[in-house]
């Protein structure tokens, strides 16, 4: 066997909340003006109350609404695959498993939280959503989800990606969303996730019918992604494995990483590895501090690893990982030594991604390529020692909408410091 | 339930051969010079002997080799989905099911035969393959399969698509294939599948290490696609349905159509519907006759519906359906009244495709959009009569690599006679 599926009724019926399992208590976000902990009322202009409750919850499990399950069933549970052909090509004794989130309608894990956020907003009367998107994985996912609940959507797309990745812009429009390049007021700037968040928050705050939706970083977003790790745990059991030795995920804001790793946090023997781009090394070279989530300083101050909220990373192809900060939950785990972090240069990521495509078939998104590269290195390390290690990584999204990046790689036009 | 999966061990272990079930005996291909039936030796410069044997076989079942199953298991069995959200949007009493072939590594059904053809070629010592591709679904599928068996690959891509669809060219290169626009000798011509076949056959015939691979039309190609219909039959049973009332597939050369419909040919009560583009109306307006498979007149003469081998269809976005002929097996079924044929204009196809994307989530390839449009019309007809009809169609591929076409549609730049 190389592939484990589960029937639709085995989609997890509750999300896993990592907060009670953190080594040290989580610190609250602070109000940007008063520097006091923010309360629900401070967040109400941005989010519906049910998401705010999830954001501050310390309940160990939170039920997934039936209406959300009904939509997740369009593609979930996703398959767990054993990468036997890659193992053979590497000559490793390790067993490599990947959870394939690329089979969602929008092609990445982002759809998991997009559906939940659209559901709660629609239920509380929101008519319109605003959001940011980097490479476009989040924007496409939310466009799909908004269409399911009849919500209008405006997407502020990081200008560097808006030019580089027209296909994701078109996909958003095909699902009915509106897309504009960001920063809206500075047409010469390539932008970043931080500046696009500022644009989307500004658009939202002034309008009663509008809420804002974030595709990563916040607790409730990572919560919705834990279906990935919960399913993978079940499927590893089906495959006859116990716990994995190591779980690997790429990390920008932290959502696919949190999704695959959080359900393994209580298992002390399982190593957890975050993989980020060397050009935006938040966890490996940033400082742990309170900082704004956006460039404009409009969001609450979050306790996290950060490169500074005014840091503008180079225009690498993994646009979804170009974020100055990281999820407070991921940051807390890294700070306390429960999670490791490593950084990869772009060239090495694409070499690994092509190797994966030619053995396992699927072409990874550049973001996802970071996890592929680190999983390959774990397998090669196991070859050195002869250890029959079990490696699990999250195949967070396919690269069909990122092929311009592969064209650069295939024809030698890609550098580690892509401008 | 809205989704039925099968475990990997339930991939069909034998292909279904429709030849013994044809209403009238199949007619042989003729040698282009002598006009006598071609023998195995005539085809040997092009194909390995095991594929030639399959081409002329009248055995009812042909075993799928274990090595082929091992690769198909990377994504098969594919899910059968019930399109409940589309049904609700249409207000139809019909139950619409679609077989989702878009989950393959290259994103379409083409991978099913690509793996089999690469396997048989590698087994008989072929080192290099040549082929044609239209929109690029076939070229990407064969590039993936060739990489699995270490075969070199040269793809002659219809020039209209080469310019319109750079992403599929890049995907082929990422899997290790070489791509050139066709016709190679006429750089001002948009080309067609027929001219690209001529280029690929010419390249093959002169070289001992090289064979040619065709992505549709021929008996052995359609044979390899019957895993689609065989799985769907099993999954409809799981869903509590008996036989479907109607099975719908889009038709260019006929391979995805044959794949989903052939296993239902013996079931007299099941309607079978081929959907083709109005701009290339082979089955609905062509003549049934012997004709060449290619523009250059290099291939054997095939008994089929044809618009004439020198017919150059307009550059519609469904490049995979721009073929002057049709599979002899499909043609025979249409001629004898066992299969219906209908033709759709491009604008109506994209309207249906967007409707599908906004309800069911997945964005269809333009080729696949033809089947979506006809399935919707079947469901609307059922609404008129109140019939609780069961409709099955083949979701043959996703449109992530065809989004430029959606951009034209979304912004009103697409016409029914796209030049």
From TrEMBL, chains A, B:
The modification N6-(pyridoxal phosphate)lysine is found at residue 110. Pathway: Amino-acid biosynthesis; L-tryptophan biosynthesis; L-tryptophan from chorismate: step 5/5. One of its GO terms (molecular function) is tryptophan synthase activity. It catalyses: (1S,2R)-1-C-(indol-3-yl)glycerol 3-phosphate + L-serine = D-glyceraldehyde 3-phosphate + L-tryptophan + H2O. One of its GO terms (cellular component) is cytoplasm. This is Tryptophan synthase beta chain. Residues 73-397 form the Tryptophan synthase beta chain-like PALP domain. The beta subunit is responsible for the synthesis of L-tryptophan from indole and L-serine.
């Amino acid at each position: 066997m190389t592939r484990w599926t589960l029937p639709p009724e085995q989609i997890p019926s509750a999300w896993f909340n990592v907060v009670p399992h953190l080594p040290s208590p989580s610190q609250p976000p602070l109000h940007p003006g008063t520097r006091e902990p923010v309360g629900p009322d401070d967040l109400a202009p941005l989010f519906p109350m049910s998401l705010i409750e999830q954001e501050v919850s310390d309940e160990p499990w939170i039920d997934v609404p039936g209406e959300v399950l009904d939509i997740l069933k369009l593609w979930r549970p996703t398959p767990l695959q054993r990468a036997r052909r890659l193992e053979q090509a590497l000559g490793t004794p390790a067993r490599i498993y990947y959870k394939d989130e690329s089979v969602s309608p929008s092609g990445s894990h982002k759809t998991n939280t997009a559906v939940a956020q659209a559901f709660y907003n629609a239920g509380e009367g929101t008519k319109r959503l605003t959001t940011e998107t980097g490479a476009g994985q989040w924007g496409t996912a939310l466009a799909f989800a908004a269409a399911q609940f009849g919500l209008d959507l405006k997407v502020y797309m990081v200008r560097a990606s808006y030019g580089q990745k027209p296909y994701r812009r078109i996909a958003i429009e095909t699902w009915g969303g509106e897309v504009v390049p960001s920063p809206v007021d500075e047409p010469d700037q390539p932008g970043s996730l931080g500046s696009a968040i500022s644009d989307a928050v500004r658009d939202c705050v002034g309008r009663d019918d509008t809420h804002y939706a974030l595709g990563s970083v916040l607790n409730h977003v990572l919560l919705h992604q834990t279906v990935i790790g919960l399913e993978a745990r079940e499927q590893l059991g089906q495959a006859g494995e116990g716990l994995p030795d190591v779980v690997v995920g790429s990390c920008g804001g932290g959502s696919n990483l949190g999704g695959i790793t959080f359900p393994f946090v209580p298992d002390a023997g399982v190593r957890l590895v975050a993989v980020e781009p060397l050009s935006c090394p938040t966890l490996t070279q940033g400082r742990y501090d309170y900082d704004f989530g956006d460039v404009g300083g409009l969001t609450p101050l979050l306790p996290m690893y950060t490169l500074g909220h005014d840091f503008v990373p180079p225009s690498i192809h993994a646009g979804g990982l170009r974020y100055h900060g990281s999820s407070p939950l991921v940051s807390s785990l890294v700070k306390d030594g429960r999670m490791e972090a490593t950084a990869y240069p772009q060239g090495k990521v694409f070499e690994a991604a092509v190797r994966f495509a030619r053995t396992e078939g699927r072409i990874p998104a550049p973001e996802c390529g970071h996890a592929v590269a680190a999983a390959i290195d774990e397998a090669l390390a196991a070859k050195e020692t002869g250890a029959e290690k079990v490696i699990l990584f999250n195949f967070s999204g396919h690269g069909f909408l990122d092929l311009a990046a592969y064209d650069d790689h295939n024809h030698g036009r890609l550098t580690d410091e892509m401008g």
